[in-house]
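[job 0412] stage=complex_fold ligand=beta-D-glucopyranose status=START
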Amino acid sequence: MAIIGRNTKKEYLQHIENSFTLTIAEMKNIVKDFHSEMRRGLAGLKSSLAMIPTYVDKPTGDEKGEYIALDLGGTNFRVLELKLKGKGKLSPPRVRKYVLDKRHISGKGEELFGYIAQRIKAFLRGEKARQDDVLKLGFTFSFPVEQTGIASGELLGWTKGFSARGVVGKDVVMLLNSALAKNGLGNIKVAVLANDTVGTMACLGYEDQDCDVGVILGTGTNACYLEKLSVIPKWNGPNTRTGHMIINIEWGNFNKLRRLDYDIALDKASENPGRQILEKMISGMYLGEVARIVLNGFISKGLLFDGLRSPIFNKRGHFKTEYMSRIEADCSKNLSEVIRFLKESGIRNSTFEDRCLIKRVCELVSNRAARASAAAMAAVITKIDPALSKTHTVAIDGSVYEKHPGFSKNIRTGLEELLDKKASKIKISMAKDGSGKGAAIIAAVA
Ligand code: BGC
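[job 0412] stage=complex_fold status=DONE, emitting structure tokens
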């Protein structure tokens, strides 16, 4: 049966425009459903939001001392050494970045942790004396972990394409400790295990006492916030200094969303079907793939490049989110950067109409992502302060927020549509590479 009204390019694009547009009413619904999932998660009921107590209170800014930090959350990991000087001041950290390859990401967990321990050893080798001291380490581990203490927790499941064997269900600090011991680094004591959102929030919170939310919008996505212990029914541990605790929401798994066929196709083909539904709509690991699936639909209908197939749009994972950024940033009259990109990708001939269509689809996909992020952010802040009676600083980091053209502006517009003038109470501040530094700060809080 022919699909009435979707046969011409214009009609089909209109259909895509309508499908990808998140209306204000829909954003309001996201906020409502987010609140209800947050409450269920805090009560220990079934919810797509894990709402994990992190055992961490807000930093005071007075923390002092020397720490090392390990920041693991993607294909790169970093080792840092830094000094907290108190009064919210840090000395410039010594940092080294290392790359993980496929063998570490999808091989044996032991190999992954063994490699990390070796690199930490190499990092410290520069400083002979430090090899015998007791060194306190803050471990930022950017995957969903059910924490069992400030420095212990079990991996609930890998995300972002990781699949190293023998780690899910295990205490990741124990795995790191045993790799450190095997490498003669028994003098390192893991003082804290923290999610990257928590590190990011702690890093900014060290100098800005209004900071009560941390967000990552990068390869993966997530947020944390400061919650009152009295509204966390599932918490039965001790009290904290301020009666509050940072909660790792694991918002990437939020699933009360209107999904399109494209989202469903992406999810089915992913390494973790049925999980990380919000993450699959808004984060850098997936945005390019959503756009690719849509554009491939145009090609197979003969509505783009005269139906000519090419791997960049035809093969899963080939069209990266950074290509979308490049395409959307092209404001030249002829879309000449898009021409260049297409040529590099083996597509020699494109019409101006083809290029406009590609750019428009990329914009629709990223705009939906920014508006869904705004709704999730608004939900977290109004959970803390429904009337928005005070200023809230959101510490944010991640390539999508930082680099994708228009993303931060579209989030701001979304917040204003949802919260009107009160959106001005929300200050969003970049905490570039804050997750590792933050882990050291938390180690000091601990
Ligand atoms: C993980 C989170 C993490 C986020 C950002 C997600 O895939 O589940 O724990 O905070 O990525 O790195």
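The mean pLDDT is 94.
[job 0412] exit 0
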